[in-house]
């Protein structure tokens, strides 16, 4: 498995509604990659952080829909070339939770 494929699979193991370090730790351990936890978490946290930054930069309320998702994906791929649709799916879920949690859906 290529590193890009691994990061996307790792992202699926790390983020559901929001990132959980223990879930990532267990995911990596199940693949014999427990020693990679710090570097993988740093890589994944960078893309998760970029989701939050992107959402904060938008005017509330967040314009949910296919156009929004395409724009968010394009924005993230520029910064994280390894990201695929597989890894993007949990980030969309996270974006929904983050927007709710931070009150970014309010008008």
Descriptive notes:
By secondary structure, the protein is mostly helical. Helix content is 69%, strand content 0%. It contains five helices and no strands. The chain has helices spanning 3-14, 21-30, 37-57, 66-79, 85-101. Helix 1 (3-14) packs across helix 2 (21-30) and helix 1 runs parallel beside helix 5 (85-101). The chain starts with a helix and ends in a 6-residue tail after the last helix.
Short description:
With 107 residues, the protein is mainly alpha-helical.
SSE map:
Elements: H1 3-14, H2 21-30, H3 37-57, H4 66-79, H5 85-101
Helix pairs in contact: 1-2, 1-5, 3-4, 3-5
Rg estimate, integer Å: 14 Å
Ranges with pLDDT <50 over ≥5 residues? none
Give the proportion of residues in helices. Answer: 55-70%
Give the number of helices: 5
The termini sit apart by 44 Å
Category by helix and strand content = mainly alpha
Give the H and E element order: HHHHH
DSSP strand tally: 0
What is the overall pLDDT average? Answer: 94
Biggest sheet statistics:
none
Shape: globular
């Amino acid at each position: 498995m290529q590193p890009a494929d691994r990061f996307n699979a790792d992202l699926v193991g790390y983020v559901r509604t929001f990132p959980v370090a223990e879930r990532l730790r267990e995911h990596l351990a199940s693949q014999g990659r427990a020693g990679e936890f710090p570097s993988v978490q740093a890589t994944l946290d960078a893309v998760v952080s970029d989701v939050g930054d992107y959402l904060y930069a938008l005017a509330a309320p967040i314009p949910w829909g296919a156009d929004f998702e395409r724009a968010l994906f394009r924005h993230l791929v520029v910064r994280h070339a390894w990201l695929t649709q597989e890894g993007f799916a949990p980030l969309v879920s996270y974006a929904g939770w983050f927007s709710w949690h931070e009150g970014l859906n309010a008008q």
